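Morning!

As promised:
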Amino acid sequence: MAGYVIQRCLQAVVVMFVMSVIVFVGVYAIGNPMEVLIPLDAPQDVRELIIARFGLDRPLWEQYLVFIGNVAQGDFGRSFVYATPVLDLILSRLPATLELTLAAVFGATFIGVPLGIWAGYRPDAVSSKTIMGLSILGFSVPTFWVGLILILTFAVSLGWLPAGGRGPTVTVFGIEWSFLTPEGLSHLLLPAVNLSLFKLAMMIRLARAGTREVLLTDTIKFARAAGLSEGTIVMRHVLKLIAVPIVTVFGLELGSTLAFAVVTETIFSWPGLGKLIIDSITSLDRPVMVAYLILVALLFVTINLVIDLTYAALDPRISRGAAS
Amino acid sequence: MIDTSTPLGRFWAGFRENPVAVAALTMVAAIVLVAVAAPLIAPQDPYDLGGLSLLDARRPPGHVGSGGYVHLLGTDAQGRDLLSAILYGLRISVQIGLLAGGVALAIGASLGVTAAYAGGIVETLVMRIVDLQLSFPAILLALVLVALLGQGKAQLVTALVAAQYAYFARTAYGAATAERRKDYIEAATATPLSRARVVFRHLLPNCMPPLIVVATVQIANSIALEATLSFLGLGLPVTEPSLGMLISNGFVYMMSGRYWISVYPGVALIVLIVAINLVGDQVRDQLNPRLHR
């Protein structure tokens, strides 16, 4: 087991190194930031000053080494556009994205799981077939299109909800949150629904498949034979038995929802990380791009590492197989 | 009468039993046909600037334009006939989807089958990279690649292929590891045929059924992905107005109630994607060996 843990951790480090090189070289190979940063009519000395300040005159590998050294100290450089440290910029946008992501994933789970259990419990009912049909739509219709329709329906036509932005925020523990005011909550609702639809479809399918399997097991037969009510069976037994895969997917999806938030945030002008990365791509703000990509890579590598190690702890065959 | 003595005939006989799938397939065929024939059937050439008049801009569906022609689906901000723009947009979307899906299939299937047949270090290396990539969401990969490569048709297709080949590689690898233990592969290996021939002429064709299923889904996915990227302004250049870009252009006007500029291109996109997915569902049911009697 110890050997497997070390092996997987080393692998994660190698992956992070490769990712950082790819991202750094890739980002720094496109476009010419000098054209963006320096006005065309700038005098030569100003030009040289800016180049020296951003270290653009040094060879690429040297820039990379300086960059990695700084990253190790938590310094991702300064944004070309905002002229503030990139880490501060990212941290200031993180709560908005986190809030949106959590709202979407929790919403999808608490609505999707009961619907999925129902669809699995009564697979032939019209309501179940409707639920499953809608879940296919949730899978295939692109997120940005659903977002547009939500805005068109609830913001433009009905005027019930705001079309974008985050609304007023309340500061708790030095971080701003939207969900604590009714106004902020109304701003959160549409983007959260938009972001959750894909997860909702997935939760429904997972819960349905799980329920159908569990209903055929002896546990449920004995529970029925013991005279428990159907409600108790579903709440006490089915839910408990299908929980494991749902919790796993819940954890996995938290990461990918964070990534998918890019689209939703752009449509609803939600001032989070996703909007920041799109803006930085269009304005060639390379330090922000590099920092975002490396942090996201780190997030996914960590999630995968944790999952692999958890599975290995649960199933000894995995670590033994890798060692042989 | 359908000849059920061939695999294709049997497949088609089964396919015909699902009316939804048949309707979806008809829809896909109709859309592809319309997309191919767009220059012939579109009422207006939407990118001939001489034919446009700003007097016709942002008119609702049914507006009679200055050319005396009825704009069935209204016009966009440049006075372009929306129906014609959608037909041309479909053409680009279908083209990108097929191109990206096809190239990803070719690369991914070759990699997967080769990894399964070769084994050893090649297998470990290829499948490690593939698994690593599968743990990242495709949209994020595509976004990063578009950001790194810059804009353009070739760059976009490259990004889509790079984001999607891993699904094909995984599927082909799974099918090929099961297939390569069978006698016919061993027999082929014992003959003086080259290894490449064994892999591509004997192993690969027998791994096709699951690959076809993945291919249908991935073509729909690459169309959706391209639309998403174009909507975000990171997809095709302005000279290649796909459906995603049409939707994006109309987004600004939606707030003031001019819904048609975004909505109709969107409807075309959704119908295309859902129809492909429905066909894919049926193909999956039929080619899945576990569901066979």
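Residues 82-118 of chain B form the longest helix (37 residues).

Hope this helps with the figure draft.
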